[in-house]
């Protein structure tokens, strides 16, 4: 399986990562090698085998809906990189 | 004089007899850390004043629990309210969690004393702790070698005698492999046995927290202290917790030990094989019945894991966007801010895995990779179900070789293949323990025992019987100033 530098850049974009030309050159053969290794799963007949997403068979775990205190505003904003003390500030999302 | 810490049991006994106070042990552990950690690099943070204040607060209290006054360390991907938790990543370099992980809270409730936070591969992604954004951790048995990973700091801290126990997390072997490399006991419980609340997520269907200790009995003490259902983790099992301690010394006569006939042997060091074969003989002498079992699909475990784990990681790590917490890099637009934040904040291995996961989940490849990996996971689990009809525990090496040198496994795939014996238990959700079974080229090697789901009791019993009868003590590593 050959993952080209273009594929690397496209996947990086999907994952919100900016990769440099240099990184893309390094990552392309590495990702190719890893995905090629994973190709061995194609050898096995997996028809009608159900997928396992989780080793415990718990479904729709519910708890009683009882309100409890969450973080205070101050606690919630404590780790925010940029805030005005009331809300988190981010670069403009809409062009105005 | 070199200061080291004894076992959990020795600390507990001394405190219970009131021969010592919690602050004496905290002081001693700090001295051990100060004396050795410049060489080892196991700890990312130790807040000495806070540690001593916490310990002194217990001095006048009465010992009421096995964990009372016992110093310990936590892998730095386990959240500690008010104390920095970095996951060894730049993206969380100043992150102070507003809440504590359940395992930490339980240990605090039982009056254990946190000494500090230990180094790891960034976001627990790696097998050598070389992927930490902050520092190298060295193997206490040989400073030129890695401690294993990703919980390398916790393994090294216990091996060197800086703390009697430490917690780590295991997604594909990250407790068991460093335990083997550092000559200590490492236990990954059954998926769901221990709450993951407050564990910084890597691959949520595989991650599990567990202890590093100097011996098997201590592992039972710690597991007892941290196990059980947690309403804050909906994947924690709503099941009673066995008594792991009382019958740990019971005879293993008649228990069946499975030896895998079709395990992959690529890259297996002959010395490791020999040590494990000897260990099986010890178990047979102890009265266990040795039977042959087959795990035909375990050869596909590494390929399966390196699709499932990165896929889950790519989703879990999407939260690090520089908005609500963690590092933020400036950008003109929101998109540019996201991309710069994540590119500057994540190391290369983390990016590599996010990209593999994104690729495996992307439209057009999902069925070929992710779905097939999940189907293979079913077959791997079925293999175990069949094997456990014929035996009670399954024995393999923990890792194919003893600890390697820094930089030796620079190819990512080579590094991944190192986890071939530990990964299957994560995919099947089963408990596994690594117990030291000898030295090869002067370096510790481990035997891995894998048990039935939620049967840590039998696992610990067999491991304990082996440890008692193996006929040697692991030599303490010499760490000098």
From TrEMBL, chain A:
Keyword line: ATP-binding, Ligase, Nucleotide-binding, Protein biosynthesis, Transferase
Q: Which domain of life is it from?
A: Bacteria
Q: Which Gene3D superfamilies match?
A: Glu-tRNAGln amidotransferase C subunit, N-terminal domain
GO molecular function per UniProt: asparaginyl-tRNA synthase (glutamine-hydrolyzing) activity; ATP binding; glutaminyl-tRNA synthase (glutamine-hydrolyzing) activity; transferase activity
Q: What is its EC number?
A: 6.3.5.-
Q: What class of enzyme is it?
A: ligase
Q: Which InterPro entries match?
A: Asp/Glu-ADT_sf_sub_c, GatC
Catalysed transformations (reactions): L-glutamyl-tRNA(Gln) + L-glutamine + ATP + H2O = L-glutaminyl-tRNA(Gln) + L-glutamate + ADP + phosphate + H(+); L-aspartyl-tRNA(Asn) + L-glutamine + ATP + H2O = L-asparaginyl-tRNA(Asn) + L-glutamate + ADP + phosphate + 2 H(+)
Instruction: List, in alphabetical order, the GO biological process terms annotated in this UniProt record.
Output: glutaminyl-tRNAGln biosynthesis via transamidation; regulation of translational fidelity; translation
Functional description taken from the UniProt entry: Allows the formation of correctly charged Asn-tRNA(Asn) or Gln-tRNA(Gln) through the transamidation of misacylated Asp-tRNA(Asn) or Glu-tRNA(Gln) in organisms which lack either or both of asparaginyl-tRNA or glutaminyl-tRNA synthetases. The reaction takes place in the presence of glutamine and ATP through an activated phospho-Asp-tRNA(Asn) or phospho-Glu-tRNA(Gln).
- Which NCBIfam families has this protein been placed in? gatC
Q: Which HAMAP family match?
A: GatC
Complexes and interactors: Heterotrimer of A, B and C subunits.
Task: State the similarity comment.
Answer: Belongs to the GatC family.
Q: Which PANTHER family match?
A: GLUTAMYL-TRNA(GLN) AMIDOTRANSFERASE SUBUNIT C, MITOCHONDRIAL
Q: What is this protein called?
A: Aspartyl/glutamyl-tRNA(Asn/Gln) amidotransferase subunit C
Native source species: Alicyclobacillus ferrooxydans
For this protein's source organism, the top of the classification is: Bacteria, Bacillati, Bacillota, Bacilli, Bacillales
TrEMBL record, chain B:
| Stated family | Belongs to the amidase family. GatA subfamily.
Annotated Gene Ontology MF terms? ATP binding; glutaminyl-tRNA synthase (glutamine-hydrolyzing) activity; transferase activity
* Keywords, in A-Z order: ATP-binding, Ligase, Nucleotide-binding, Protein biosynthesis, Transferase
Which reactions does this protein catalyse?
Answer: L-glutamyl-tRNA(Gln) + L-glutamine + ATP + H2O = L-glutaminyl-tRNA(Gln) + L-glutamate + ADP + phosphate + H(+)
- Which PROSITE patterns does this entry report, sorted A to Z? AMIDASES
Q: What broad class of enzyme is this?
A: ligase
Q: What is this protein called?
A: Glutamyl-tRNA(Gln) amidotransferase subunit A
Kindly give the InterPro entries that the UniProt entry links to this protein.
Amidase (IPR000120), Amidase_CS (IPR020556), Amidase_dom (IPR023631), AS_sf (IPR036928), GatA (IPR004412)
Function, as annotated, reads: Allows the formation of correctly charged Gln-tRNA(Gln) through the transamidation of misacylated Glu-tRNA(Gln) in organisms which lack glutaminyl-tRNA synthetase. The reaction takes place in the presence of glutamine and ATP through an activated gamma-phospho-Glu-tRNA(Gln).
- Provide the E.C. number(s) assigned to this enzyme: 6.3.5.7
Q: Which residues form the active site?
A: 75, 150, 174
Q: Which residues form the Amidase domain?
A: 31-460
Q: Which PANTHER family match?
A: GLUTAMYL-TRNA(GLN) AMIDOTRANSFERASE SUBUNIT A, TRANSAMIDASE
Give TM regions. Answer: none
**Which organism is this protein's natural source?**
Alicyclobacillus ferrooxydans
- One Pfam family of this protein, by short name? Amidase
Q: Taxonomically, which superkingdom?
A: Bacteria
Please give a single GO biological process term from the UniProt record. Answer: translation
Q: Which GO terms describe its cellular component?
A: glutamyl-tRNA(Gln) amidotransferase complex
Assembly and oligomerization: Heterotrimer of A, B and C subunits.
Keyword rRNA-binding assigned: no
